[in-house]
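SEVERITY: medium
COMPONENT: batch folding queue
REPORTER: lab tech (J.R.)

DESCRIPTION
The queue accepted two submissions in a row. Attaching both inputs and their returned structure tokens so the on-call engineer can compare them side by side.

ATTACHMENT 1
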Amino acid sequence: MQQVLQVAEANPQYSLCQHNTHQAWASAALDKLEREKQRAVDTHLIMLDLPGFEETPIYFKDESTHPTGSLKHRLAQSLFANAICHGYVGPKTTVIEASSGSTAVSEAYFAQLLGLPFIAVMQKDTSPTKINSIKHYGGKCHLVERGDQVYAESERLAKETNGHYMDQFTNAAVATDWRSDKCIAGSILSQMEREPNPVPAWIVMAAGTGGNSATIGRYLRYHKLATKLCVPDVENSVFMDAWTTGDNSITCDLGSRIEGIGRPRVEPAFKPDVVDAMIKVPDAASVAVMLKLSELLGRPVGPSSGTNFYGALIIAKKMQEDGEKGPIVSVICDGGYRYLDTYHNREWRLQKNLESPRFVAEVEDLLHR
């Protein structure tokens, strides 16, 4: 709504043009987001008890304990705060997001908290459990055939509904305050302070939007830490190709089979120049290591956590061969309960060619060498 205020009756030619910026609603909404952030406090840091890894201990930041069950809870809160402060989201705005599931679950949660309609645009083969979680929080799901179709469809829906496309793939790296000790990197370093070796040699973080790896890499540089960043990448993803060649225009036609990570294009949030190393991880290896990590923890984890653990094991192997010491920290991106009908279902794995005795044996070799 636009109002014109007369400055003075004696000078009617002077007027002040004023827009309704929903300031009161925005202040209340930001208060809700901040209270939710305080309630969530922080997630656990777990050290795996692995014989033979005393000089290269592996830790996991367990982001599955967030209220919405994944590390995307942090991102969703930041994206909403960013959109509200920029004036993109108001009291009746329909929020649209392109997501493989976890971000959409978290954004649906925050949209419900703020009383906003929410639509998630996802590949049709997204886990049914994730789809049900989005619906549980009052969101709607709009399914497309391929991962590369989510962007244009999200933009179309935003125009059609006069809503706002949150666009995690572009905004993940700018919505998060990567300098702050409250970001995921700051939280990891804070929790490591009382460990025998408080500064990690490596942090291993796979890329979906690329926002978390960008946050970690920039935090490490800003605070002048010696810790290095490794980003393991999966099949049908172009992050490692772009990092290797320097060509950010590379694309691929297929979507990632590891939900939550890997993209068919180089997302704007991915910052290759802050990445020290990358590892290409076969999809079947991610799944085999996911199952092993679930066994070690006594509870299921998601497939991207398997990708991270594989990367951590490869880094540990290289450090041991080179006589290097130091902690390795990675992330449990989400819990495995939402994948019980897919990645944790052997029949489904066989159907998708993700059941591999070869990689099961390789994992055991990495753990017991």
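ATTACHMENT 2
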Amino acid sequence: MAPNDSADTNGTAATAATGAGRRKAVRYIVPVAVAGVAAATIGLVPALASSGDPDLPEITAQELIEKIAASDTEQLSGTVKISTDLGIPSMGGLAGSLVPDAGGKDGASADPQTKLTELVSGTHTLRVAADGPDKQRVSVLDQASEYSVIHNGDQVWAYDSKSNEVYHAEQSAADHAKRGERPAAPEGVPTTPKALAEQALKAADGSTSVTVDGTARVAGRDAYRLVLKPEQSGSTIGSITVAVDAENGVPLKFTLQPSSGGKAAVDAGFTSVDFKKPAASSFAFTPPKGAKVTEADEAGGHGKAEAEKAKGGLSAFEGTNVIGKGWNTIAEIKAPGGAALPSKDSADVPAEAQQFLDALGDKVTGKFGSGTVFKTRLVNALMTDDGRVYVGAVTKDALVKAADNAG
């Protein structure tokens, strides 16, 4: 594949809609999400295919992004392989300790809010299907079990075949938000290349070089390669490559390379895909005989009780201040009244959770005082001893500088 000249020489910019709503920090862990990822300067140099790749018509980066935005494909089914290497331990065994409602006698082990967070580490195979905005299914396949989330109209079902437990919600996420409860299905946990690509293309502010870098074959489909690279220093993101279906504009593969090099931090792509209408049975679900069924309202009530017990922990954080812009965006979160974070000697911190945090942390000092930087290959967080958190897809030095400047 022949790379194009940098988009910087063209000076053309495209702006996409900003932002999804922010969530409060999860107790004891820093959310692993790309904060403030932006697409910006759009190159006008067309793609050129080398001899081993599909020979497709020339297209500019501007035209390719417009093609993604204009895609009206709402029906598909297929298999997605997603590999995530953020440099953190597997979340599977820690979910019960780190996240309220993660299971146990009072929780719901089939709760999507908990189960799908396991996708932040390791390699997983997903079977997906969609038929418009009201019918979707995602199944995470394991060697001897399967976990599925089925959305059909106002019904959301989740089933864990390993534990034979079912999670059910009838109300929409908006209804739950009005009542101060969690939505039935998780937000901000992308499970397809399209969802990941949309996050990376949310905003354009001049901080990104965007080019078309040749063509590829993905899941038997011809595709163009859209490449985003930050122009700012200090980001932990090296580049994002999105393989876009040449016919319908659907992102087929998403690859995020960290600036530190090595294997991709996130690599998600279809291994097979069909754009025909899925069978109606794909979105039908009846709880198996003998399965334990937990209603969303029951799990929500348990979550409130856990939140009360968590006062003074990270779940009590509120009031987010955004520092910087583009790829170097840092979120500053302050604890009410400057409450300090739970210490390693605190009886309120589960041993597994403390082990997880200690494996990631580096002690740092600066004008701000002292604190600990928790590292992944992508998102880093500085937790100060006086109860502030600085988090972003930036380096340790960038976090310390932001804390120093914040006073």
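NOTES FROM REPORTER
Confidence is low (pLDDT under 50) at residues 1-51, 91-107, 176-188, 301-317.
No errors were logged for either attachment.
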